[in-house]
Amino acid sequence: MIYLLFEKYFSAGGLMLRMAGAALISFLIVVLLGPRVIRFLVRKKLGDRPEFDHADLNQLTRHKSNTPTMGGILIVLAILGSVLLFANLRIKYVLMGLLALVWLGAVGAVDDWIKLRYAAGAGTRDGFKSWEKILFQIGLAVLLAVAIRAYGSQSDIVDAANKVYNPAYSLYLPFKPTPIYLPALVYIVIVVLTMVGSSNAVNLTDGMDGLASGCTGIVAGVLLLLSWIVGVGAWARQFEMPLVAGAVEMTIFCASVLGACVGFLWYNAHPAQVFMGDTGSLPLGGLLGYIAVVTRQEVILLIAGGVFVMESVSVMLQVGYFKFTKRGGRQGKRIFRCAPLHHHFHLGGWAETKVVVRFWVMGLVFAALALATLKLR
Fold it and tell me: CA angle, 55 as apex, 54 and 61 as ends, to 5°?
């Protein structure tokens, strides 16, 4: 493990060098393994066959037919490899993050494999049912919530009023320097909502070439800075944020996610040679949620991940309004041309590349707003 060398020869474990190394190795793993994995997916006929309940959208996306999916395996391998090399594995937060990565990656991979083999005529079932995936996600989130509370109880902090708080039991708001104490059950519910919501939000956003990977990379950059701040005592005090022992290692996760997303864009940029599928989107979103929980920045994640929030809310509004207006045998109505939101703009005449780039721009704006809240405390 390269971390041991950094710990021996560099002060503070050479954190900046480790972050740079994790991002670079993660990027290289994706770029170098990409062609081989893409050829394997093509041989196995694991190609996407997008089908929507909108004829015009099916026409717009017909060129994506048979594009290899399950490319998210590249992202999972890249993050796993770089974290194992550069992170301090003695920190339990790191081990829990690896569990989240492998767990959600496995759920997404099995779902993609069954679904795509079924579409190719070699299976008997069209992937996991929605409730089955949610059940796996909730199970992981509850397990990690209990573990984070137990481990986080070792890192009490003192605020400006000399009041002691336990970061694992508290919720931190962007504009409020003192935290809100949470009962155990409420805390577990927040962890579940954060991780499951983030995982599914990235999954919903993964519908255009480069959209999910680009937006995830932006949010990972924000979380990297936040992990750095809450992991260093002087910075945590300066920004009136919790000092969470061991959370600084989340910077390695964030750097690995950032490197993997940039590397994946090499093959996923329009026109995409490969899609990440649930294999990539579920663990990426789950990791963002997990890092936000560890650093006690769940609310900041809502701001930084504004694009993901927009996508998720558009689906909930569309489905809810359609069901509401369908009562009494009436014809259901829609709010958007199609949901998630990126399809609405695509059907409105925007080119796919324009939708993606503009959503990236909005992602950068949301990221800037999230970081601006640090000074507003």
Answer: 90
CB 172 within 8 A of CB 241: yes
The pLDDT tens digits of the residues spanning 74-110 come to: 999 999 999 999 999 999 999 999 999 999 999 999 9
* Position 98 in a domain: yes
Buried b (16+ CB within 10 A) or exposed e, 198-222: bbbbbbbbbbbbbbbbbbbbbbbbb
Per the domain annotation, does 254 fall within a domain? yes
Q: Which two tokens stand for residue 331?
A: 């014809």
CB distance 339 to 318 below 8 Å: yes
pLDDT in tens, 244-275: 888 999 999 999 999 999 999 999 999 989 99
Structural domain count, the chain: 1
pLDDT at 278: 94
CA distances (Å), 41 to each of 45, 194, 256, in order? 6, 32, 24
**Domain of 352, in residue numbers:** 2-372
Burial of 185 (0-12, 13-18, 19+ CB in 10 A): exposed
Tokens encoding 28: 């290289």
First to last CA, the chain: 39
* pLDDT: which is higher, 129 or 34: 34
CA atoms of 197 and 191, how far apart (whole Å): 10
In angstroms, the CA 354 to CA 356 distance is 5
Question: The whole model's pTM is what?
Answer: 0.92
Whether residue 99 lies inside any domain: the answer is yes
With respect to residue 377, please indicate whether it lies within any of the assigned structural domains. Answer: no
What pLDDT score was predicted for residue 285? 97
